[in-house]
Each structure stands twice: as structure tokens, then as C-alpha cells.
Design brief:
By secondary structure, the chain is α+β, with helices and mostly antiparallel strands. The chain is built from eleven helices and 14 strands. The longest helix is centred in the last third of the chain and has 21 residues. The protein binds adenosine-5'-diphosphate (ADP) and magnesium ion. Magnesium ion binds next to helix 2.
């Protein structure tokens, strides 16, 4: 069992940022409105994730660390819905197999919390402790028992950078949740949970980007797009600023990426890419999710329709901005 878990862990948990992704998604699933992420040395030696969500009931704790034990998926339809972030029931067992975990959790209706320690998949202790409602996971020494995997990690600074990028996406995709990210005791990102998308863009990207945005809010049958796209002037030499979220998740779709880039084609130089921060709400009935342990690829039952709608929506927004001259007071009659 422990070997199987270690192998499975390799598919789900590649690096510290995968641990953070899985644990933060669990916190979101648990209804948390505030999530704090602290790391040391790029998360290799230490990760702490604290949430104010539902907590885990005492009798559920050990079960949660068993492979394929998920409280979320009830049917293949649930999977297609992409409504819940968790869908595998493998994260906790995988993380536990390759690290030292200390968990403190308390539900609102228990009197005390539980502290559970599990190292390399082996239970170390399970005891009652005083704790606030919610859950704290501490992950120490990732891959301590799989030295080869540990060797594949990049420098602490690079690993911290991956986590930072992930948390930027999570903040942009969930303006209603407060995220705080602390790396080596330094505050790196903080959102308050009651910000609008533009405020979050400001905290992540700063003033120059925020000053140069065009707002988008368009819908059609089965699809609603809201958010912001950058004016052509703030394009970049890489795709790193093409942010979009589908039904609340950071998922890539070739169709959507192509439509966005095609819309900008006449507005920016070749090999430049736009800034976007868009939220797509898409009716799950036209979505098809191909699930692989780490990658999710999205397909649509109406590819042409999705492509054309996104292309038109962005082209219109860009034209509106480029062609209509700013109205000066003296122009008004
Ligand atoms: P999945 O998220 O796919 O269900 P995981 O292995 O990530 O699988 O988590 C297993 C279970 O542990 C979850 O289904 C949930 O019941 C519980 N759990 C994990 N993290 C939390 C958390 N932060 N708050 C409440 N429950 C949690
Ligand atoms: Mg999960």
C-alpha cells in the first residue's frame, strides 16, 4: 500500500506548488473565506495552510488520508460539472506518502479539535487539542523519503515563484476569498475577500496594468464572460499574462486561447501576447473534461460557437476602445 501510494503521489504531487494547490482547493471546497499560506525555502522544508472552513470531523480524519476517499464525487456527472474543485480523493494520501504532515482541525459542532500527525504515510499520533474552527495543515520535508524526486526540484526561489504564480491565479479566480501568502516570513500577497476583480488585478499586477484595462461583460446562451482585457499597449512577449478562469477554475482551453490571440492579432505585433483576466461561466452541458491526474483539458461540444463568440466579444471590446475617440468636453454639443 505504501509503495502504491508513493507511486501515485508522483503523479499528483510533483513539487511544493502541487501540495499548495491541492490543499488550497480543499480549503475552498470546505467553504473557507480566509486562507493563509506560509512557506519556508520554497515550500520544500515547510508549508502551512490555515483555513476557516468546515473542519474535518474526528471520525473522518483517518479516512480522508485513504486513497480514493473523497467526500465530493458522487457520480461521473459531478466530474463533468467541474463544480467542486476536488475530484480525485488522492491528494491527502499522496502528500502523506511523501512528507511529514501535522494536521489540526475542528468542526463547529465539536468541543475540541484534533491534532493528527502522519509521516511517510504512517500514523504517528492522534490526540485532542484546543483549536479554532477550521483546518491547519503543516507539511514538512517534502520528498524526505523519495530522494530522487527531491533532486528534481528547482531552487527554493524558483519553487516559491511557482507557488506565488499559483496564488495569483487563485486570488484572481476567487475575489470573494481572502488569501494571504507569506514566504520566508515576508508578506507576498494579500487580498481581503471583499475586493472586486479590478482591485485584485491591482494588488497582483500594480498600477500600470490596472490603468490600461478594458472591461468586458457579455453573455449568450450557455456562456457569460466578465472581467478585463488589457489595452494593446500593455502586451507582453510571452503568454504569462493571459489569465482566464472557467467556472472558477484556472484551466486552459486551446479554443479560448486561440480566440483571444486571434482577436488581438490586428492590434499587437507578432509574438506579443495580451493581458487578460477573464471569468468564463459556461454551462456544464456544453463542457467535456478530459481528466488526467495532473492536467485537465477542456473541450466543448460546440467548439466553433465558443471560438466565434470569444473572438467577437474581444474584437468588439478592442474596437470600441481603439476607434471611438475619447470625448473631450469641447466636443459635446
Ligand atoms: P478530494 O479533495 O478529491 O475529496 P483529498 O484527498 O484532497 O480528496 O481530500 C480528502 C477529503 O478530506 C476531502 O474530501 C474532505 O472531506 C477532507 N478535507 C481535506 N482538506 C480539508 C479541509 N481543509 N477542510 C475540510 N475538509 C477537508
Ligand atoms: Mg482535494
Amino acid at each position: 500500500q505504501s509503495t502504491i501510494n508513493k507511486i501515485a503521489a508522483g503523479e499528483v504531487i510533483e513539487r511544493p506548488s502541487s501540495v499548495v494547490k491541492e490543499l488550497v482547493e480543499n480549503a475552498i471546497d470546505a467553504g473557507a473565506t480566509a486562507i493563509t499560506i506560509e512557506i519556508k525555502e520554497g515550500g520544500i522544508s515547510f508549508i502551512r495552510i490555515t483555513d476557516n472552513g468546515s473542519g474535518i470531523a474526528p471520525e473522518e480524519i483517518k479516512l480522508a488520508f485513504l486513497r480514493h476517499s473523497t467526500s465530493k464525487i458522487k457520480s461521473i456527472e459531478d466530474l463533468m460539472n467541474v463544480s467542486s474543485l476536488g475530484f480525485r480523493g488522492e491528494a491527502l494520501s499522496s502528500i502523506a506518502a511523501v512528507s511529514q504532515i501535522e494536521l489540526v482541525t475542528k468542526t463547529a459542532d465539536s468541543f475540541t479539535g484534533i491534532r493528527y500527525v502522519i509521516e511517510g504515510g504512517k500514523e504517528v499520533s492522534f490526540e485532542e487539542v484546543g483549536a479554532p474552527d477550521g483546518t491547519t495543515f503543516m507539511i514538512r520535508n517534502l520528498f524526505f523519503n523519495t530522494p530522487v524526486r527531491r533532486k528534481f526540484l528547482k531552487t527554493a526561489a524558483t519553487e516559491a515563484g511557482y507557488i506565488n504564480a499559483l496564488l495569483e491565479h487563485l486570488s484572481l479566480s476567487h475575489p470573494d476569498i481572502s488569501f494571504r501568502f507569506i514566504s520566508n516570513n515576508q508578506n507576498r500577497l494579500h487580498t481581503s475577500g471583499n475586493m472586486n476583480l479590478k482591485d485584485i488585478i491591482y494588488s497582483v499586477y500594480g498600477r500600470d496594468i490596472t490603468k490600461n484595462l478594458i472591461e468586458l461583460d457579455v453573455s449568450t446562451q450557455d456562456m457569460h464572460i466578465t472581467g478585463f482585457i488589457g489595452k494593446p499597449a500593455i502586451c507582453r512577449g510571452n503568454r504569462g499574462f493571459e489569465n482566464y478562469y472557467i467556472n472558477g477554475r484556472y484551466i486552459k482551453s486551446h479554443i479560448i486561447t486561440r480566440a483571444i490571440e486571434e482577436a488581438y492579432r490586428g492590434f499587437i505585433m507578432p509574438h506579443n501576447y495580451p493581458f487578460t483576466a477573464l471569468h468564463f461561466q459556461i454551462n456544464p452541458s456544453i463542457l467535456d473534461v478530459n481528466v488526467h491526474p495532473t492536467k485537465m483539458e477542456l473541450r466543448f461540444s460546440k467548439n466553433e460557437f465558443v471560438y466565434q463568440f470569444v473572438l467577437d466579444a474581444i474584437t468588439d471590446a478592442l474596437n470600441r476602445r481603439e476607434l471611438i475617440p475619447e470625448v473631450k468636453p469641447s466636443d459635446t454639443v
